[in-house]
Amino acid sequence: MGSQVSKQVERRNSIRAEKKVLFEMKQSNGSEFPGSDYHPSDRKNWMLSLNPDKVQINQIVWPGTHDSATNKIGFPFVTRPFAQCQSLSIYQQLVTGTRVLDIRVQEDRRVCHGVLLAYSVDVVIEDVKKFLLETQSEVIILEMRTEFGHDEPPDFDKYLEVQLGEYLIPQDDQVFGKKISELLPKRVFCVWKPRKSPQPKAGGLLWNSGYLKDNWVDTDLPSTKFESNMKYLVEQQQVTARKFFYRVENTVTPQADNLILCVKRVTDRIRPYARLFISQCFSRGVADRLQIFSTDFIDEDFVDACAGLTKARAEGNA
Questions:
Q1: What confidence tier does 2 reach under pLDDT thresholds 50, 70, 90?
Q2: Phi and psi at residue 117, in whole multiples of 5°?
Q3: Maximum CA extent, the chain
Q4: Separation of alpha carbons 74 and 67, rounded Å
Q5: CA distances from 16 to 161, 194, 219, 261, 276 (A)
Q6: What SUPFAM superfamilies does the entry give (predicted)?
Q7: What is the average pLDDT across 112-132?
Q8: Residue 4 vs residues 10, 13, 18, 255, 258: alpha-carbon distances, Å
Q9: What is the DSSP letter of 33?
Q10: CATH class of the domain whose range is 2-314
């Protein structure tokens, strides 16, 4: 018992020290970067407002959500706090400005996070299609993957093609250098990541796992995650030379050996430092490698930061 208490005290001290590191870095270095003062007047159409004829796909800094479809995961006040990573519905996230969705599914086409379940993936698809019908130039990346420990739904690739076919951007390395307007009316990069079934084939309507990469660091320590994100970003090519999407996630994750297991309380250790991360990318000379930037519990300020940097890139200021 005494060793467990000692361990928890040590963990709390580590967390407190790491939060202090990020706070002091923000105090001393600030969080400004090219485009940081930009705030879209219409976040639902922020890509349109930047002019689709001028913005290239590889210039976009894509605001994304981690475990996107968990707003109604599990049971309220019982299991939900341990798995909920977003409070908004998929449609609300898209209207807020989210442009990358991370959807985990299991055998029966229900969205899940570990062993906890949410709604049918049909709800996700309907929200996506509703948003697409209400907009004209907004492009999204829809990542669908089989949750760890599960099998994929039967014929799920065919399901995605039938449901989203008219919007799907076919797999093609050339699109990264194209402008948004050159892809329209196609507006969805659908990345399908099955665990056991064959990956989508080259040239098809779905993109395989090789086109959306990241380096997930499983920690609840905010400065550790911040610096790990930076370390892996340094190892990437510039976005203009890249033929795939690379994601950095401004999140930290509850750990089983820590008494604090609610996602919101844990991830709030790093959420206030999204703009600091972008600013540090410039300070450390790797801003030209930042592409997808994802978060838990996305908000308007996070979207504005990504949209602002996208605007600065499109105007040649970053």
A1: low
A2: -115, 155
A3: 64
A4: 13
A5: 47, 39, 14, 16, 18
A6: PLC-like phosphodiesterases
A7: 95
A8: 10, 14, 21, 15, 10
A9: -
A10: alpha beta
